[in-house]
Amino acid sequence: MLLPFLLALHAAVAALLVPLVRVLGSRAFVLASVPPATTAVWVLTHAPDIVAGRPVNTTITWVPTLGIDLEFRVDALTLAMVLLVSGVGAVIFGYCAKYFHSGERGLPRLAAILVLFSGAMLGVVSTDNLFALFVFWELTSITSFLLIGNDDRKEQARRAAVQALVTTAGFGLPMLIGFILLGQAGGTYRISELVASPPVDAPLVPVALVLVLVGAFAKSAQAPLHYWLPGAMIAPTPISAYLHAAAMVKGGVYLVARLAPGFAEVDPWRALILVVGLATMVIGGWRALRQDDLKLLLAYGTVSQLGFLTLIAGTGTQVAAIATIGVLLAHGLFKSALFLTVGVIDHQTGTRSIAALSGLGRRMPVLATAATVAAASMAGAPPLIGFVAKEAALEAFLPGTNADTTAGLPAGVAVAVLVGLVLASVLTVGYSARFAWGAFSTKTTVAERRVPRPAATFVAAPVALASLSLALGVMPFVADPVAQGYATAFAPAAKPYHLALWHGFTPALGISALVLAGGAALFHWRVLVARAQQAVPRGFDAERGYYAVVHAIYVVALRVTRALQSGSLPVYLGVILAMLLALPGARLVAALVSGDVALPGASEHEVRFWNTPLEVVVALLIMVTAVATVREHRRFPALILVSAMGFGIAGLFVLYGAPDLALTLVLVETLTTIILVFVLRRLPETFGTRPNGWPKRLTVLLCAATGTFIALALWLMAAARTDPPVSRGYAPLAPDAGGHNLVNMILADFRALDTFGEVVVLATAAVAVASLVLLNRRSRVVEAGPAPEDEDTPTTEDEAGPTPEDEDDTPAPGTPAEEEGQR
Amino acid sequence: MSTRDEDPTPPGDGAARRRGDFTPPGGTTVGEGAPPEGWEAPRERWLSTVVRPAFGPRSVLLEVVARLLIPTILVFSVFLLVSGHDKPGGGFAGGLVASMAYVLRYVAGGRSELAAGVPMRPDALLAVGLLVACGTAVVPLLFGGTVLEAASVTVALPIFGEVKFASILMFETGVFLIVVGLVLSVVSALGARMEAEEAAAKAGSERTRGLDRQKGERR
User: Fold this and answer.
1) Nearest residue to A682 via CA among A635, A721, A741
2) pLDDT of chain B along its 219 residues, tens only?
């Protein structure tokens, strides 16, 4: 089974491309097309088996305890998707070699990410595990974010990239929840098993389906989440051709088509699919009709087509399933051909505006022919695959003629959908014609420009894809087995339906003719149509909705931050201490009162005042320095006193036989004192405002209460032990680990993972401190932002907790938090 | 701190006041009856770069101590690191001691002296440390062990006798490097900031003064 190897090949080639593009320039894209081409060839060699109902399976164990494995399963639907993702992908990658100029900024990165994306997309369509699917799904979101934002110096590109990421990945999270609910309800995370025996009666399944559909809708740019797709057109055109025609946006459709055999009958799946799909179809078509930018026209056309695809993929009848495969292939072929055509036009003329293009049909006849064929396929004109597929889709919703094709769909609903379908198809014909006319016609009102003819190899890609549209249209029996292979999963129709160019004089044929005529009329009276569009109020704009939501989140976050982050260290400390008293403190008091916690008896835990008289000396030192620190109003002496207190505590550790702790504490105290001296040089000599009156009394009360609570709790806790300490087992184990110093063995071996986490925190804190301090220096403006306080306690200091100074990174000097902070 | 350029610090004032007073040897005197500025500066060269101490005037005591003690401190830090298995010490303590050597060097010789003594940037130290720690965590997996599994080998060497090599030493080395990197990045960040501010104050830019005055008012 080659599939995991092919995925690895994608990753390897991606890594290899970075240096290669640097050396070879855009020619290296030919290498980029190797992995998808290999994949396409591989899947084609298995095609006979797959369409015969013998899917290719393979499994790599990943996290068996959680049911997460890399399971791959290539069936008919996957076959169609892989042909799109990898087959069309290989063509587009070859095209990239001509489209991009060597030495363009960010080209190596672009090439590598493009191949990674291709691999991730291959993973999405071929995996059989919900979690693996989610991982690959998010990988496509991230890589497409990087691809859309490739020109990272343009603000618009960055914004479009973020918008796409927030929408697709943001709604991917509910989808993950949906996956988990589905998996829990069905008892398995294997998609094939879930679909074969769907847990339709489980109470949470409808919720799960809605969540999954939301994720799929966001990915496939369904209204009202379609706004990111036109925005993403800022990406280079071949990227748009690949991501937004062949691959990524099909992810949502794929997911719907994948789950439809099992869940189409569960409410509210069908209602949601039909409403959203139809709405998207009509909105996309309506907006495509008024675009001036050829690429945006295609983008809105894609939105419309994706609505169409979602609609038929989710309907869940056999004829609709056959139509789904047909439209999937047709759309992948004609839309990428059209995008690549726009790429050629843009590359040669430097514009994509209909208002600025004229006479290109005469200068690029081959390209014009190919693009017209592709546009005709989009419009659903015979004898192209677009026509074949649309016939099938119309057939799926025709009530009456064949009672069983609309099985499970009430006649009224079917008719309503059919009407919407016809309406949207008329719009599709209209914008298809507008595209061909706008790109290639000779307009009397536009001055013609002399543009260089594109190289033959450059035009080859769109021509090849358009020819495939024609070839599949003439020979639909090539694609039919794939469609039949997918459709067997649904309840069989009374009369089998096949993808074919000619079914006889059927109602569907009549509707097709009607649609073409309507579209032609729409195009012929395009001036009137444009005027009518102007007259219609724009109403709700989904993109504005997105920005409103994002803005609202910012505003709320700012308000919350402003309310919670006052920038005053005493307030922060006060809140922390008050919480300490309110929760554990109150609980302790309650436990003492109710008798849950008994006061230690006199026998075992009797209160001794000291073990050695030396302790008295050390304790006196600590107490004296503590009191003196509080009473000191100059910063520097206060710092020295605090350090002295720390050394006193280190002395306690020595007396209690903990040399490791004492050593570490002494070192930390020394170092923090030195670093604090650096900081103190920039601060006023004395503490600024000192609390007086009620604030002072409150502070005293709070601190005294906290101290009492800590002392009491420590005393009670030491006596409250019921089980033997864990550390008993450590001593005999230590020699096995290679040492006799228990503290060190705990840190470096027994609890090494904790230590590891802590050093990672340390490193992060170091980077954060440095960047915050330097950032402050660069802007030279002392903002009222929070100071870079690092509350991390380094590895061994957990035990050395009581020192008040063990944050060795103090806030940056000069920030207001520091002004009254040292208390 | 608005007045740090204008009013010379009276002698014997708090340490916090003295920070802006660096003047080159032979510069102006600081006050009535005080010794001349730079009287403590050594005539010989003790450190490797042009000495511009982090704060205060140059001091022969500091420079000599730094020169003599730093190698010893560094060796001691390695000793702590290596002896940590059986005796007090370990990567964390060793790292703190080593970074103290560098802090001493910074205090005595200033920023360029610090840079001259450190083999790489603090960030690089952090990265290497994390890499070593991660490597120790992952390598056992390659031999079929679990994450962070420890192993030790005792070898008899000709002169040293029985020597124990424990894999946790590698882990401790990572911790050591991270601690050194942390302290160095904090010191150099604060040092960079202070130096830049002093340079700006020297240039007497109008903007800086305005800011300083604001700072003074807030105080």
Assistant:
1) A635
2) 343 443 444 444 444 344 444 444 444 444 566 667 677 777 777 777 766 776 667 788 888 888 899 999 999 999 999 888 888 888 899 999 999 999 888 888 887 788 888 878 888 999 999 999 998 888 888 877 777 777 777 777 777 777 777 778 888 999 999 999 999 888 888 776 666 666 677 776 545 445 555 555 544
Closest CA to A217 of A165, A255, A178: A255
Residue of B nearest to A769 (CA): B186
Q: Give the residue from A125, A148, A149, A150 showing the smallest Cα distance to A136.
A: A125
- Give CA–CA dist B146/B138, Å, rounded: 8
Of the candidates A755, A763, A774, the beta carbon closest to that of B189 is on: A774
β-strand partners of B155: B163
C-alpha–C-alpha distance, residues A508 and B179, integer Å = 75
B161 DSSP β-pair partners: B157
User: Is the pTM for the entire model greater than 0.80?
Assistant: no
Say how far apart CA A239 and CA A199 lie, in whole Å: 39
Q: How many angstroms from the chain centroid is the CA of residue A257?
A: 21
Q: What would the two tokens of residue A156 be? A: 């618009």
**Rounded to whole angstroms, how far apart are CA atoms A18 and A13?**
9
Task: Identify the three-state secondary structure at position A597.
Answer: coil
Interchain CB contact of A660 with B (< 8 Å): yes
DSSP for A189-224 reads: -BHHHHHHS--TT-TTHHHHHHHHHHHHHHHTT-TT
Residue A763, chain B, CB below 8 Å: the answer is yes
**Max Cα distance, chain B (Å):** 75
| Measured CA distances, A427 to A415, A515, A518, A521 (Å) | 18, 9, 8, 10
For residue A781, list chain B residues with Cβ-Cβ distance below 8 A. Answer: 211
Helix (H, G, I), strand (E, B) or coil at A565: coil
Measured between its terminal Cα atoms, the distance across chain B in Å is 9
Q: Is A782 helix (H, G, I), strand (E, B) or coil?
A: coil
User: What are the tokens at A67?
Assistant: 């049911």
Instruction: Name the closest residue on chain A to residue B207, using Cα atoms.
Output: A780
Decide if A144 contacts A243 (C-beta within 8 A).
yes
CB B122 within 8 A of CB B181: yes
Residue A587 to residue A578: CA distance in whole angstroms: 13
State pLDDT tens for residues A760-783.
999 999 888 888 777 655 444 444
Interface mutation vs chain B, best among A656, A666, A678, A760, most B CBs within 10 Å:
A678
**Short-list A533, A288, A222, A247, CA closest to A433:** A288
Give A677's contacts in chain B (Cβ within 8 Å).
Answer: 15
Question: Is the CB of residue A733 less than 8 Å away from at least one CB of chain B?
Answer: no
Q: Which residue of A has its CA nearest to B179?
A: A762
Residues 6+ apart with CB under 8 A from A613: none
Least CA distance to A681: which residue of chain B?
B16
Q: Which of residues 765-794 of A touch B (CB under 8 A)?
A: 765-767, 769-770, 773-774, 776-777, 780-782, 794
Q: Is the dihedral of CA B93, B97, B98, B103 positive or negative?
A: positive
Q: Which residue has the tokens 């030790």?
A: B152
Residue A812 touches chain B, beta carbons under 8 Å: yes
Residue A281 near residue A100, CB atoms below 8 Å:
no
Strands B161-166 and B152-157, bridge-based pairing: antiparallel
Q: How far is CA B57 from CA B11, B39, B195, B203, in A?
A: 13, 9, 15, 20
Question: CA angle, corner A725, sides to A724 and A731, nearest 5?
Answer: 115
Q: Whole-angstrom Cα distance, residue A390 to residue A392?
A: 5
User: Which of B168, B186, B200 lies at the smallest CB-CB distance from A748?
Assistant: B168
